[in-house]
């Protein structure tokens, strides 16, 4: 594939932007390549500036469950566009959006719109602290909740420990209030609560982890989260920025039957435009300004274009709930074929998925937490990624990411993907 125009753009970009990008993973560093620059997308496909076509499994990292430029979403945006792009004032579409999310997600009685997943989780943490009057929060190693200071922290050595910042610029003092637990580790969670229970404001968790690759929650882990937070008076925060309206119409909490106190959203609820939201029990959400003492605001929050795109997306999903079944079938089709091909080629892979969110781990152990995810062969992933890209299959440029199937992926797309996977595995075997 010739990507000379992309390469030239990347050189220009690096001169004026950190790493040439506006979000680190886009720089393709972990697969040791230059990124293609994308010119357009339609349905399940994207085209780069050199005219190369790809079947897209990144889907803007999750928002595009209906694929690129879905007519229902484009029409909704166009209609709003004619009426203006932002007023910084109350609008009807915000009310409709809030009502729709509250209808679909029973734990959400009140919701506040923001502009990104990061803002949503950051605000939910502030609310948990403001509501409980406590400072500590628990997060899980390998879970990503955006880049706010309290949350940009992972585990040290797997012992119960105070967090250490992942980034320069995060004060150590801030990190000390973030307790790190292993995902799916009930015993460790109990231990943390026994030691610090009365100081813990909330536990934030990806109910299906997607940011160490896809990692499924064990049912006893989800139950322990609910029971322990309840017992110690801490809030349970489900970060459904990725899973919300992706794994089911009622999100991960509907799928697993666990009711959190607060939920954060992003991605799909913006239909591809910048958005985030947090919501939950009325009694807690009334602490948010102007009803209550926890301040949070935003010039573009509830932006009419984002609301229009998100509302069109959620309405389409609500009106066609069979979509989730179809997505799950497509995922199973890919998974079954990928597993067979890898086996034929003697390559160890483990595939984790919940419906249309999925990761192929180059790993010989089951991936159940961050530690096991880190055992993956990132060199093999990089080689696989390159082979797939060369054949026009655009997968996430990192082992520790999730890929997504949209309603627009046809079985023809899936068959092409399987064919590419076969060639990639044959190349890797050599
Ligand atoms: N929470 C989860 C689970 C995410 O996957 C992400 C982003 O990938 C975020 C929060 C942060 O969202 P944003 O990138 O919109 O700030």
TrEMBL record:
Pathway annotation: Porphyrin-containing compound metabolism; protoporphyrin-IX biosynthesis; 5-aminolevulinate from L-glutamyl-tRNA(Glu): step 2/2
Enzyme class: isomerase
Subcellular location: Cytoplasm
Catalytic activity: (S)-4-amino-5-oxopentanoate = 5-aminolevulinate
GO CC annotations on file: cytoplasm
KW Isomerase (keyword) present: yes
EC assignment: 5.4.3.8
Cofactor: pyridoxal 5'-phosphate
A Pfam family the protein falls into: Aminotran_3
GO biological process: protoporphyrinogen IX biosynthetic process
Gene3D superfamilies documented for this protein: Aspartate Aminotransferase, domain 1, Type I PLP-dependent aspartate aminotransferase-like (Major domain)
GO MF annotation terms: glutamate-1-semialdehyde 2,1-aminomutase activity; pyridoxal phosphate binding; transaminase activity
Chain positions with N6-(pyridoxal phosphate)lysine modification: 267
Membrane-traversing stretches: none
Family in the record: Belongs to the class-III pyridoxal-phosphate-dependent aminotransferase family. HemL subfamily.
Assembly with partners or alone: Homodimer.
Protein name, UniProt field: Glutamate-1-semialdehyde 2,1-aminomutase
